[in-house]
Design goal:
The complex is a heterodimer of chains A (87) and B (217). Chain A is mainly alpha-helical and 87 residues long. Helix content of chain A is 55%, strand content 0%.
């Protein structure tokens, strides 16, 4: 892990990995605060694949207990920033 | 896509005498088991509840050959192999139910890997024609979409479809007391030309029993 990823870099990485696991969303404009389940129809498999990819990329393992509070890209980026900052 | 679904479903509703059964299942043992298992594993090795549903159905089908196979102009052709078709929604509309081959022989990790792969290829458009053509039964699970139960329409020439609603906390009677439990409603729609409600009810009861013992799936 490079020492200091900015919040914007983390957000860009979350979007990048999201469109990798859900290529059918690649042409969509996804507002960072959009509820991905409600607005973009992400299901439990998409979320799991997304968190798996982020674990590989950033080294942060998101426990299943935290899934319910991670509903938007902003939620995930903020969560990852806090976890990376605490390393 | 819409036209293909329309043709198959109109045919099914017109020609197949469906009967429908529904059973609530205490999912607490499976939920607890899964949460505990996943808590110890990195994301790439975690399982989804849907995998337990598919495996429970596949194992139970071994004792119910009349639900696993094909209708050939009114005559039943059983299938020795169990290929569960996994209904998967396509964002923006439509769905497909590609098969996971020999579902009953796969351990949960392998089944999960195959399901991941199938969903990825549904998303990116890389399914093989054989996967769409050869399921011997369909399982439809509405995951976290918020409905309690779904009554499926059989996909011809199959003769049964099993539906799982969204698992939910619900009041449950356990040893004469009402307690909150995690509950899922399982439904069966089957072709009355080839099976009857009595056998269908036994089938659902055995699926429930298997979900009570997740460590044996």
């Amino acid at each position: 892990m490079s020492t200091a990823m900015t919040k914007d870099q983390i957000l860009a990485a979350t979007l990048d990995e999201l469109t990798n696991v859900a290529p059918d969303l690649a042409d969509e404009t996804i507002p960072p605060d959009a509820d991905l389940r409600e607005v973009f129809d992400l299901d439990s498999m998409d979320f799991l694949n997304w968190f798996t990819a982020l674990h590989r990329r950033l080294g942060v393992d998101i426990p299943e207990l935290d899934y319910p509070k991670l509903r938007s890209m902003d939620d995930v980026a903020t969560y990852l920033a806090a976890r990376l900052g605490g390393l | 896509m819409r036209q293909a679904i329309a043709a198959a479903m109109a045919h099914a509703k017109r020609e197949i005498p469906h009967y429908y059964l529904s059973q609530d299942v205490d999912l607490t043992p499976a939920s607890d088991w899964l949460a505990q298992r996943n808590a110890e594993l990195p994301p790439e090795r975690r399982l989804l509840m849907g995998v337990l549903f598919i495996k429970a159905v596949a194992l139970t089908l071994k004792g119910f050959p009349e639900l696993n196979g094909f209708d050939r102009e009114g005559r039943f052709e059983p299938s020795a192999a169990i290929h569960v078709g996994c209904a998967t929604a396509i964002r923006g509309g439509g769905l497909v139910a590609p098969a996971i081959h020999d579902t009953d022989h796969l351990d949960l990790d392998t089944l999960m890997a195959k399901l991941r792969d199938l969903v990825a290829r549904v998303r990116s458009g890389g399914l093989r024609a054989s996967e769409l053509a050869d399921p011997t039964i369909t399982v439809s699970s509405l995951g976290e979409r918020g409905v309690d139960r779904l009554y499926g329409i059989i996909y011809p020439p199959q003769v049964a479809i099993v539906g799982f609603g969204t698992p939910r906390p619900a009041p449950w009677v356990l040893e004469d007391r009402v307690v909150p439990r995690q509950v899922v409603t399982v439904t069966l729609a089957a072709d009355h030309r080839h099976s009857d409600g009595h056998r269908g009810a036994l089938f659902l009861a055995q699926v429930a029993q298997r979900l009570h013992e997740p460590e044996n799936l």
